[in-house]
UniProtKB/TrEMBL annotation:
Domain (Mop): residue spans on this chain: 306-383
InterPro entries in UniProt: AAA+_ATPase, ABC_SmlMolc_Importer, ABC_transporter-like_ATP-bd, ABC_transporter-like_CS, Mo/tungstate-bd_C_term_dom, Mop_domain, P-loop_NTPase, Transp-assoc_OB_typ1
Domain ABC transporter, chain residue ranges per copy: 2-238
Pfam families membership: ABC_tran, TOBE
Protein name: ABC-type quaternary amine transporter
EC number: 7.6.2.9
Classification lineage: Bacteria, Bacillati, Chloroflexota, Ktedonobacteria, Ktedonobacterales
Cleavable signal peptide: none
């Protein structure tokens, strides 16, 4: 069965322009990742049929639900899509059973069938035996699972999850994240999940679409995102330094030299090693290229070092932050230093270095002039 979701949307909401195409694989989770206002919820609303695009096409499993040229507009209640809203509000006065049965009652199904469907849905979200509880007697994670069961009871072919973890506190979020991963893995239902948390995108997304200002700026799997960010937005989420420029030459040892665009005075050149990114051929001179540098690969000096590092940039420290654990990697004992590099305009984010407390103490960091260096071999370039 070819159960591919195909989506093409082009529409204006006042001055906001949403324009994108994507397809989502059967039984997998496709994540829409983007910051607030990127257009993520709008995409879900357009898929669900709560709004219609000016132009576009939405089909699943060879059935078309929207196509402006063919004048097909299937109303929301006739789309086999389950929508779990951001705040998944449950009816507080109704039991879990009645909350899950709500959409089925609206379809006037016989009560025997309703009971069977509700039991099955509660089973799929591991909430057997909770039928008679009221939402107030459930944890945040359990309430969220009831909301998913409510969508599943309608036997959807597509599940739309809008920030499913956002209503939970940080501690609960961690536990529920795992639970939801298990549930989705067992469901094998084509799912579109919206989030602004990159960690969730990495955990849930078989495929991740990065949305910015109504457009997809990157599409790929976890590895693509982590190793080859293509926007400063993704690079910032991952916590790496990011440069975009054009290849201007290759050195005799193969080092790739990339000149940044729009720097205040040209040339601002970065020396980098071409990553192995499955490139069939060495990229041509003039091609657009991206460079990432891990903040821990950046070394700081109070005066120009004797050794001639090819990437050596003077700048001014703009921020010093002592890191604590709790992130993706252990950061205890590290200090994050932001440096505005000379010659790069204010449009460029500062270079970030992560150095040990010991080095920070030795350098007596404050708002001061500093030299930042990183090896060409620590700068990964890709096109
Ligand atoms: N009905 C509408 N009319 C006009 N503008 C709209 C409408 N709906 C959304 N927008 C605009 O579209 C843009 C995208 O909104 P959307 O809610 O889809 O973003 P989002 O990525 O889901 O953000 P969030 O994470 O904050 O929910 C915003 O600039 C918003 O103001």
């Amino acid at each position: 069965m070819n159960s591919l979701l195909r989506v093409s949307l082009d529409t204006y909401l006042d001055s906001f322009h949403l324009s994108l195409n994507f397809s989502a694989a059967e039984g997998k989770t496709t994540v829409l990742l983007g910051e607030s206002g990127a257009g993520k919820s709008t995409v879900l609303r357009l898929l669900a049929g709560l709004q219609h695009p000016q132009q576009g096409h939405i089909s699943l499993d060879s059935v078309t639900y929207f196509d402006n040229e063919q004048k097909i507009v299937v109303p929301p209640q006739e789309r086999p899509f389950g929508y779990v809203f951001q705040d998944y509000i449950l009816f507080p006065h109704l039991t879990v059973f009645e909350n899950v049965a709500f959409g089925l009652r609206a379809q006037h199904l016989p009560s025997r069938l309703i009971r069977a469907r509700v039991s099955e849905a509660l089973d799929r979200v591991h909430l057997v035996g909770y039928d008679m509880r009221k939402p107030a007697q459930l944890s945040g994670g359990q309430q969220q699972r009831v909301a998913i069961a409510r969508a599943l009871a309608l036997q959807p072919q597509l599940l739309l999850l809008d920030e499913p973890l956002s209503a939970l506190d940080v501690q609960t979020r961690r536990e529920v994240r795992q639970e939801l991963q298990h549930i989705l893995a067992e469901l094998h239902i084509t799912t579109i999940m919206v989030t602004h948390q990159y960690l969730e995108a990495l955990l849930f997304g078989h495929s991740i679409l990065v949305l910015d200002d109504g457009h997809i700026i990157q599409q790929g799997d976890q590895r693509d995102l982590l190793e080859y960010p293509r926007s400063s937005y993704v690079a910032e989420l991952i916590g790496v330094n990011f440069f975009r420029g054009r290849i201007v030459r290759y050195e005799a040892d193969g080092t790739c030299v990339i000149a940044l665009q729009n720097s205040e005075y040209q040339p601002f050149e970065i020396f980098a090693a071409l990553s192995e990114q499955g490139q069939e051929a060495t990229p041509d001179i003039g091609e657009e290229a991206y460079v990432v540098v891990n903040p821990r690969s950046v070394t700081l000096y109070q005066s120009p070092p004797d050794a001639s590092a090819r990437n050596l940039f003077p700048g001014t420290i703009t921020q010093v932050l002592r890191l604590r654990s709790g992130g993706v990697q252990s950061r205890d004992g590290y200090v994050r230093v932001s440096i505005a590099l000379d010659g790069l305009g204010s449009k460029f984010p500062p270079l970030t270095a992560e150095i040990t407390e010991v080095s920070a103490t030795r350098l007596r960091l404050q708002q001061q002039r500093i030299y930042a260096a990183f090896k060409a071999t620590e700068a990964s370039a890709y096109t």
